[in-house]
């Protein structure tokens, strides 16, 4: 075989095919079918005419005869058809390439969701894999889903995408004569990796890429992708890494610019040209800044390649034959009709299964639609769906009367039995393709049976199959999420309708149903998960009481399903987490479950410290909610909860420890000291740890104890205050000693004695006694200068005590707490006291009267008037004799002031305690009253 013939049989990898819409049975005046010919964020898409008849037909023509590998449909968000059928069309050899000459084979159909769950704010992107050859692709669009937004019963398609290979020459790529390892073919190591991926479809050819990318950015991304492939083949891996990072960044930029372009167009439609101009300036500045930051000229090597080697990136080199084939219109009309070449390529049967590899929910931010749209992308589970095709086509077919060379009758294209295509797994970003390992038998449209189960699944589900049958369990194992949901619903109805009487059969049905519930809880599709919870609730609240099943059956059911619920409670999806935790709380309140105490014991089992933070946090939150709702009931005790808490505090995730700490505080507030038995001892070493210190400080707060830090601070402040008072007192006492020494010196001089005589003790062998009335026995420091009492205990500290507590000539000021002489108390209050501004002097009694009482006091004239030449006592308000002796007699005598409490203490002292009145120290009063500053 000639080398160029071999290469001409090899097709390129599947890629995006160019097409144009050449026929539509109807269209809206604004949303015309020509909108489907191009893809961009501004594409408005096609809509049918208002109140049209169904089904609607649409035909697109490819640029060349191609092998179709993948079809994508982006539906409208609320003008949604219930079903779309696909037909591939081709023309016989020799016939003109016209729509009327096309013959169609039915590929199958896909069903579209009614979009009610998304609130009609997102669009559904269906991606289906096919394997067919032709020039045309026909869509048969059925009636619309009814909703409040679709006022005119229309259907709409935003975009269509076709991925496949152009067939340059009429050869079959599956020809067994074409072998890539043929020794006659020159091997190209650089292209060998590409040959190993003949079904690879680039993500850049995906419909979602062009619909949400700025066109200019999209072209740059494609150029960078090509440069990246070239760099890989040249083993320039650092350059390839830079290109990969730039592509990732540009994809985000392109989406943002696409959205800004839509907003700019909306402003133009609203004639808000200022906003449109602002958007344009923002887009240009943003685009240039991104180009500058990424250094696109350097990435694209516009100034010249840094690698001299040139490698052709085409995975296949096409060689032209020596003589080009004649054009279709130049061929002479054949005398005998021969089978067309497209019959040599396997077409799908009319009853083949159309594989839906993915169903995406993508955003709809186009502003020209008839309803408000979301601002952000909505995410949904990408679910592989297999939809059975219809048995026959509703599209009319022209009769076929031509015969082949052997004069055998021709079989119509739409009913000819052909082998089904071998579907291959395709790995795409964010998609998982369904791999069919065996050919699927033809199924009628009304057959709702799911795909066969594998041997492993059959063995695993043998118990459930014996109870519910193979058909229902097959749906529970189906790759179609709606089948799995239907299976759980069917089990729900079957369990509800089961008659009572046979307890053993009820136990078997419960075990089989729990097996399916476990699978449903682990399902990634939210609808299936909700159906499993609904079935499980019915089993525990209706089925078990109805058939009077015992605690062992309930315990077994709870123990089997709780691990799955715990795992679901740590799911990444918020609603899955919330529903799982809420259901566990609900289970705890079921009477049948509560009686077994199984759920509580399972929840408080300590988990491993290697458990993920999200799952560990959910477990702790479950225990916390159980305690808050039920307290120490239903199997919860201080012992098992605190053991769970202590283990949880060792987890390395802070959010887990926060929940445990909150639970421990709540329990201590309710139960007190027993909680401390499970914690480390409360000492200084333990409190160095922040976690334990915070807990113990909270315990002290609950117990009414001041925090240790506050107690230390308060104690330090008290000691500081006490020291300040002592210092002030010592200064006052030193002033008193100086005054006492001065008085004693003046007294000695007036008596003609030497100054040192008062401090000289007598000499001789005769012992002195305390009874001797000898002044020389005492020093100046042993005498109170106010009351004249002499005592050997009157040292520095002894005099302090005497002044504060015993001296009858002194008292504490009730306002400032200073110790002052009673004789000068009135003057002190009016002139020296800190509260002197609050007092006024009465003109009658000359005493200090509080200002709030002063007016009433003067008006009443009930006070004892102060007589001239006499002293006036501030304690008993009586007039007494003048002079110092008059004060001493009144304050210290037996018939003296009855309001002086220290007078009686002085009278009751032993006789030796005072030295009489002979050596009373002289006291002189100046203009100011003497005072001793006391403790407050």
TrEMBL record:
Residues 314-347, 387-426, 702-724, 742-772, 908-936 are annotated as: Disordered. Pfam families: CEP104-like_TOG, CEP104_N, CEP104_ZnF. Residues 321-337 have a biased composition (Pro residues). Residues 745-759 have a biased composition (Basic and acidic residues). One of its GO terms (cellular component) is spindle pole. Signal peptide: none annotated. Residues 454-708 form the TOG domain. It comes from the Eukaryota. Required for ciliogenesis and for structural integrity at the ciliary tip. Interacts with CCP110 and CEP97. Interacts with ARMC9, TOGARAM1, CCDC66 and CSPP1. This is Centrosomal protein of 104 kDa. It comes from Biomphalaria glabrata. The gene is LOC106057410.
């Amino acid at each position: 075989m000639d080398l160029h013939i071999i290469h001409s049989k090899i097709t390129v990898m599947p890629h995006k095919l160019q097409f144009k819409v050449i026929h539509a049975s109807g269209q809206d005046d604004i949303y015309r079918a020509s909108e489907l010919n191009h893809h961009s964020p501004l594409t408005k898409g096609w809509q049918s005419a208002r109140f049209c008849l169904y089904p609607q037909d649409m035909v697109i023509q490819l640029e060349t005869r191609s092998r179709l590998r993948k079809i994508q449909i982006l539906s409208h968000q609320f003008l949604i058809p219930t079903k779309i059928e696909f037909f591939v069309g081709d023309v016989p050899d020799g016939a003109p390439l016209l729509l009327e000459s096309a013959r169609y084979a039915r590929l199958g159909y896909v069903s579209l969701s009614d979009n009610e769950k998304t609130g009609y704010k997102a669009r559904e992107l269906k991606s289906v894999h096919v394997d067919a050859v032709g020039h045309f692709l026909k869509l048969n669009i059925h009636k619309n889903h009814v909703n409040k937004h679709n006022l005119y019963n229309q259907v709409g398609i935003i975009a269509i995408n076709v991925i496949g290979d152009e067939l340059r020459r009429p050869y079959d790529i599956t020809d067994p004569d074409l072998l890539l390892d043929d020794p006659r073919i020159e091997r190209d190591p650089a292209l060998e990796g590409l040959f190993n991926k003949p079904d690879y479809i680039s993500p850049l050819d995906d419909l979602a890429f062009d619909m949400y990318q700025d066109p200019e950015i999209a072209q740059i991304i494609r150029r960078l992708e090509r440069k990246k492939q070239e760099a890989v083949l040249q083993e320039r891996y650092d350059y390839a890494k830079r290109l990969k990072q730039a592509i990732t960044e540009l994809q985000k930029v392109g989406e943002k610019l696409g959205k800004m372009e839509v907003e700019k167009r909306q402003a133009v439609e609203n004639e808000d040209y200022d906003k449109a101009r602002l958007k344009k300036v923002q887009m240009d500045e943003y685009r240039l800044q991104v180009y500058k930051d990424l250094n696109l000229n350097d990435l694209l090597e516009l100034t010249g390649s840094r690698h001299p080697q040139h490698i052709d990136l085409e995975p296949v080199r096409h060689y032209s034959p020596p003589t080009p084939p004649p054009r279709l219109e130049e061929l002479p009309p054949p005398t005998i009709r021969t089978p067309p070449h497209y019959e040599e390529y396997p077409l799908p049967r009319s009853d083949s299964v159309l594989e839906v590899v993915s169903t995406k929910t993508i955003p709809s931010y186009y502003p020209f639609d008839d309803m408000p749209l979301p601002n952000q992308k909505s995410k949904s589970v990408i679910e592989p769906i297999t939809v059975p095709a219809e048995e026959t086509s509703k599209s009319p077919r022209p009769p076929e009367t031509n015969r082949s060379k052997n004069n055998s009758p021709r079989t119509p294209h739409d009913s000819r039995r052909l082998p089904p295509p071998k579907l291959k797994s395709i790995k795409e970003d964010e998609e998982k393709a369904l791999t069919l390992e065996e050919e699927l038998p033809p199924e009628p449209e009304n057959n709702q049976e799911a795909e066969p189960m594998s041997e492993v699944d059959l063995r695993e589900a043998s118990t459930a199959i014996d109870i519910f049958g193979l058909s229902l369990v097959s749906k529970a194992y189906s790759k179609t999420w709606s089948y799995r949901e239907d299976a759980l619903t069917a089990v729900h109805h079957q369990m509800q309708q089961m008659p009572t009487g046979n307890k053993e059969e009820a136990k078997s049905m419960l075990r089989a149903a729990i097996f399916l519930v476990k699978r449903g809880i682990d399902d990634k599709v939210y609808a299936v998960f909700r159906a499993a919870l609904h079935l499980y609730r019915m089993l525990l609240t209706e089925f078990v009481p109805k058939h009077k099943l015992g605690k062992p059956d309930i315990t077994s059911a709870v123990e089997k399903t709780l691990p799955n619920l715990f795992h679901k409670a740590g799911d990444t999806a918020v609603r899955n987490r919330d529903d799982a935790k809420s259901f566990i709380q609900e289970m705890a309140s079921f009477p049948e479950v509560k009686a077994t105490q199984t759920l509580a014991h399972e929840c408080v089992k300590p988990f491993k410290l290697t458990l993920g933070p999200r799952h560990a946090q959910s477990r702790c939150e479950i225990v916390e909610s159980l305690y808050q709702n039920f307290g120490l009931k239903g199997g919860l005790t201080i012992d098992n909860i605190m053991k769970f808490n202590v283990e949880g505090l060792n987890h390395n995730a802070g959010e887990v420890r926060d929940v445990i700490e909150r639970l421990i505080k709540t329990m201590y507030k309710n139960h007190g000291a027993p909680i401390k038995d499970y914690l480390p001892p409360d000492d200084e070493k333990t409190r160095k740890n922040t976690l334990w210190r915070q807990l113990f400080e909270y315990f002290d707060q609950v117990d009414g104890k001041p925090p240790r830090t506050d107690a230390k601070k308060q104690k330090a402040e008290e000691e500081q205050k006490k020291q300040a008072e002592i210092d002030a007192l010592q200064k006052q006492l030193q002033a008193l000693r100086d005054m006492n020494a001065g008085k004693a010196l003046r007294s000695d001089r007036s008596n003609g004695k030497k100054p040192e005589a008062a401090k000289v003790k007598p000499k001789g062998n005769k012992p002195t006694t305390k009874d001797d009335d000898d002044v020389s026995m005492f020093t100046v420091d042993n005498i109170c200068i106010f009351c004249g009492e002499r005592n050997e205990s009157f040292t520095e500290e002894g005099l302090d005590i005497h002044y504060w507590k015993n001296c009858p000539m002194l008292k504490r000021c009730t306002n400032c707490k200073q110790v002052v002489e009673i004789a000068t108390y009135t003057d002190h209050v009016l002139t020296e006291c800190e509260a002197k501004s609050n007092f006024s002097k009465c003109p009658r009694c000359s005493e200090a009267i509080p200002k709030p009482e002063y007016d009433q006091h003067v008006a009443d004239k009930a006070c004892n008037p102060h007589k001239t030449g006499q002293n006036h006592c501030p304690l008993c308000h009586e007039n007494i004799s003048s002079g110092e002796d008059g004060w001493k007699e009144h304050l210290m005598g037996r018939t003296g002031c009855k309001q002086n409490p220290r007078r009686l203490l002085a009278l009751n002292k032993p006789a030796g305690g005072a030295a009489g009145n002979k050596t009373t120290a002289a006291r002189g009063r100046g203009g100011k009253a003497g005072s001793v500053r006391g403790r407050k």
